[in-house]
């Protein structure tokens, strides 16, 4: 499909409901010929934006279907062009027959994937971010992805991008007005002020880029790694969370030699949960490999669950044995589970320790306390990071933001190192161009076509 000519704004038609059998199947027609087609097929001039229950007929007065027709007059439609929607009975054959008839009779054609949205974009009905988020929404596989795409559909991401853009412009203006290019020497006060401003933008983007690592969730889920001493109950927790018996549970310490992964959803959040080998010094070569891999998993994890047997004496300080991660790690990145509370018949609960780390007392064996754990994880993984506000799932956006970040860092570096301000400004310019690509202000035709062609048919 090399010759997609999106600029040729002829009238296009597509089935917008899924292929197959259904209660209702909707056909959408967009373009200049719509009114003519509507009059012919419906045998009537219908009022726009009103549902009309009518026969759909061919030119020989044969009934093609009887359904609901809605006309949207340009520019007040999804695409900004005239649109006719035919809500037919959901039979795939009759839908195709109807579309074929229209194509043959009125010289319309089937829409390419994303072509309706592309027209909506060209006619400034939606911005590029919204178009992409509509597609993200359609392709969502979890409540989590649905929420994030609806969020960017609502314009939150657009506002965020605009804010970064404004801040960059702000610095460029500041440079142009406050620095005298005719002098070789740069005023030190202004330089440090610019440097601070740059630092701020960098941190704003960094925050989002960090969260956007969660963007990989569509493929793998948020990575939760289970850690703990042998026999603390890691495999039992893993089985409890995944509700499967895939991890071998035994009372022989060191049974879990390798890493077991499972993809699950916790309250709609896609999660990849990983059970690790028992962490301890081992001369067993197989176990050693497992431990090396555990270290790697820890590095890549979004969240750690550290399992401790709550009945084992405290003087043996487990927390110290975990590569000192306990003290180094962000308090929200780790949850300590004091397991096996059933033995001393304690009640499950959640609390914070003196250092502010989250501790959950529960029993993996009986499942008592699992709801507390799930609720906590949901809070930590979803709400604490404020993903409900800005979450970037879109690979294209992440890539652009990373590039923007790179240019901003370079420009700060050059500034701090005392390079000429125009070199700094050049880098800023590059950053600005990057950010412009997200909302489609600085996007080539090829790129646009590429983006929209990944949409589904009828969108
Ligand atoms: N029947 C139907 N349902 C649908 C769609 C559709 O195309 N048809 N959509 C397709 O994605 C979504 C809704 N998107 C739409 C976006 C804009 C307009 C529209 O008519 N816009 C006009 C008027 C706005 C107004 O009255 O406030 C405009 O923008 O000028 C319609 C649907 C989801 N539901
Ligand atoms: N009473 C009680 N026993 C538990 C609990 N959780 C796990 N166990 C038992 O503790 C033993 C070890 O559990 P595992 O889940 O295999 O422990 P692990 O941490 O995966 O062990 P390794 O494979 O050695 O790393 C098993 O006999 C479990 O049945 C619990 O909450 N209460
Ligand atoms: K074990």
The number of domains: 3
Secondary-structure element order, as H and E?
EEHEEEHEHHHHHEHEEHEHHEEEHHHH
Low-confidence stretches: 1-7, 212-219, 278-283, 383-389
Task: Provide the CATH superfamily of the largest domain.
Answer: P-loop containing nucleotide triphosphate hydrolases
The share of residues in helices is 40-55%
Main sheet characteristics = 7 strands, mixed
Structural class: alpha/beta
Q: Provide the CATH architecture of the largest domain.
A: 3-Layer(aba) Sandwich
Cofactor: K(+)
Subunit structure: Homodimer. Heterotetramer of two MnmE and two MnmG subunits.
InterPro entries: G_TrmE, GTP-bd, GTP-bd_TrmE_N, GTPase_MnmE, MnmE_dom2, MnmE_helical, P-loop_NTPase, Small_GTP-bd
Organism: Candidatus Annandia adelgestsuga
């Amino acid at each position: 499909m090399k010759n997609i000519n999106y600029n040729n704004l002829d009238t296009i038609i597509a089935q917008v409901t899924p292929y197959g059998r259904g209660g209702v199947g909707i056909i959408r027609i967009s373009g200049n010929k719509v009114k003519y087609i509507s009059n012919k097929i419906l045998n009537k001039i219908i009022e726009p934006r009103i549902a009309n229950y009518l026969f759909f007929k061919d030119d020989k007065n044969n009934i093609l279907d009887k359904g609901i027709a809605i006309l949207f007059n340009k520019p007040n439609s999804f695409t900004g062009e005239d649109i006719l929607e035919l809500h037919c009975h959901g039979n795939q054959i009759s839908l195709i027959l109807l579309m074929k008839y229209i194509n043959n009779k009125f010289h319309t054609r089937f829409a390419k994937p994303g072509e309706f949205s592309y027209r909506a974009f060209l006619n400034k009905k939606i911005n590029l971010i919204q178009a992409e988020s509509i597609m993200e929404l359609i392709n969502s596989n979890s409540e989590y992805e649905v929420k994030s795409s609806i969020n960017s559909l609502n314009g939150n991401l657009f506002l965020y991008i605009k804010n970064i853009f404004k801040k960059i412009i702000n610095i460029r203006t500041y440079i142009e007005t406050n620095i005298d290019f005719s002098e070789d020497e740069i005023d030190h006060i202004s330089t440090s002020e610019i440097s601070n401003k740059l630092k701020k933008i960098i941190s704003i983007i960094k925050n989002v880029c960090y969260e956007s690592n969660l963007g990989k969730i569509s493929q793998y889920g948020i990575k939760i790694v289970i850690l703990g001493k042998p026999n603390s109950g890691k495999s039992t927790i893993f089985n409890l969370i995944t509700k499967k018996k895939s991890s071998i549970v035994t009372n022989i310490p060191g049974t879990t030699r390798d890493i077991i992964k499972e993809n699950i959803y916790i309250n709609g959040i896609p999660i990849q949960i990983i059970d690790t080998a028992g962490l301890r010094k081992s001369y067993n070569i197989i176990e050693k490999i497992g431990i090396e891999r555990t270290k790697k998993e820890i590095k890549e994890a979004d969240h750690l669950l550290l399992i401790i047997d709550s009945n084992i004496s405290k003087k043996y300080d487990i927390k110290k044995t975990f590569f000192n991660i306990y003290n180094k790690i962000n308090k929200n990145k780790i949850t300590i589970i004091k397991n096996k509370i059933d033995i001393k018949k304690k009640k499950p609960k959640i609390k914070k320790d003196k250092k502010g780390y989250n501790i959950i007392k529960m029993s993996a064996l009986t499942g008592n306390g699992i709801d507390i754990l799930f609720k906590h994880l949901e809070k930590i993984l979803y709400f604490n990071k404020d993903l409900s506000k800005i979450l970037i799932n879109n690979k294209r956006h992440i890539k652009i933001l990373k590039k923007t970040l790179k240019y901003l860092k370079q420009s700060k570096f050059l500034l701090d190192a005392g390079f000429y301000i125009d070199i700094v400004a050049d880098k800023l310019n590059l950053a600005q161009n990057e950010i412009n690509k997200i909302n489609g202000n600085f996007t080539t035709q090829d790129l646009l076509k590429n983006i929209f062609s990944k949409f589904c048919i009828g969108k």
